[in-house]
Amino acid sequence: MMIFASGFALALLAARVAAFPVLEARQGISTLTAAQVAAVKPYSYYAAAAYCVPARTRAWDCGTNCQNNAAFRPIASGGDGGVVQYCIPVLTNADFRLDALDSGLFPGVSSSVRTHNGFGEAQKRSAAAVLAAVRSGLSTHSATSVTVVGHSLGGAIAIISSAHLANNLPAGTIIKTYTFGTPRVGNEAFANYANARSELIRVNNKKDPVPIIPGRFLGFAHTEGEIHINDAGQWISCPGQDNTNSQCTIGAVPNILVSNSGDHSVNVFVVSPDTHSERRIDPHITVEQLKGKLELITGIPVSHQALSLLASQQDSRVLAELSDDSKPLGFYGLADWQVIKVTDTNPSDTLTGQLTDVSQVEKFEISEAEYAQRNDTVLAYKQRHKIGRFAGKVEEKQGDQSEMNVNIPVGSRCEVESTEPGLSKRGTVRFVGPTKFSKGVWVGVEYDEPFGKNDGSVHDERYFFCRQNYGIFVKLDKVKVGDFPVQELDLEDEEM
């Protein structure tokens, strides 16, 4: 198996490759079964693992992503975070030129077969070493198949590498390629060239902007095999190249203005002595760039910041010290729901820790009896408005809810009634109907924020897909459908 992270040339080989049911081109749009989705997901963990430093991938010790494919045994790993690994973001942002494939790597190929100049150059730098490692692995382990995996810009390199390997490995070698959030790599002639040499599967997440660039008007085209994860969490098979159906990426994200960069970034928690927040972070930015953003959030000057990467909020193991300011965050294996801990190395010069030190604050105390007599308290508010335990008992509605006239369309925006004053819980309706966990009709909602209790499943029965703690099931009378846009306090503060 060969894996490329975003802008990252890293090779991993295995003697055995996990089996995957072939997703043959269909005449129409179709939804993948749960079994097909489960078969693709392991490759997403491989792609995420490739962000880790080579020493950790060689030891297969890169946290959750390695643990999710625990039986995998790498036999080669490369890359040092230098030119080959991280030049690509600069190249892609600077120029969208289409160049012919290198004749030394692709002898005899037509000059009409062209790729993005940055992707082609990056693949060229590692091509010889990768081919040698793959040949050695196939020979040593008597293997007959190679799977190439990549994420984002690394997915572009993976597609070019698949074509290169197919031209140079023994006849009969099976090449499979799985990419995630990949941009267009070359022109239509290249897409056809790559399609003929590998079984290509490319997965795009919701409104991720990366798969729609570079634009088709510049002469670029996608390879076949798209699977689009839509807003409802369904995995949709989209046959052909650049399928414009509304359920596929090009139809759902016709331009950058309607895209969501958060669908391409990583969700992490940022903690410091005075702050705790959830943030969306681009793994391509450097540690130095991240520190500049964190100063505005934590109040700790860049020169005083020491950053540590922790496994999760529940697991405080230190996975890495982000000590090299020049390295992209992806180099350290940044993954969803990990924690970036910000430590102030010189707190005597700042106010760090003083804002949350309650020992310095004079406390106001009041007895329960005095509190109960006041009319300007939360308790008084709940009593006046009959909220919570003051609401009294409400007679249960007669009849089966399943017989009610339900007018809550799946996919519509909604607001869920909350018992907490001033708290608005907005989201999108993902399910309406009877369930196995309780009688009557229930509404499944994917919240915009992690206010929920599940991921769209209850007692191992799945009703829809969403992230953990974003899903909730409520009664019909608790849901109000309408024009309820996502509430954004300050997008610049939430994205990095």
Automatic annotation (TrEMBL):
Cross-referenced SUPFAM superfamilies: alpha/beta-Hydrolases, Cap-Gly domain, Ubiquitin-like
Cited Pfam families: CAP_GLY (PF01302), Lipase_3 (PF01764), Ubiquitin_2 (PF14560)
UniProt record similarity statement: Belongs to the TBCB family.
Keyword annotations of the record: Chaperone, Cytoplasm, Signal
GO cellular component entries: cell cortex; microtubule plus-end; nucleus
Endpoints of the signal sequence: 1-19
Compartments, as annotated in UniProt: Cytoplasm
GO biological process, one term: tubulin complex assembly
Domain CAP-Gly: 433-475
InterPro entries: AB_hydrolase_fold, CAP-Gly_dom_sf, CAP-Gly_domain, Fungal_lipase-type, TBCB_Ubl, Ubiquitin-like_dom, Ubiquitin-like_domsf
Keyword Signal in record: yes
Gene Ontology molecular function: alpha-tubulin binding; microtubule plus-end binding
Chief place of localization: cytoplasm
Name of this protein: CAP-Gly domain-containing protein
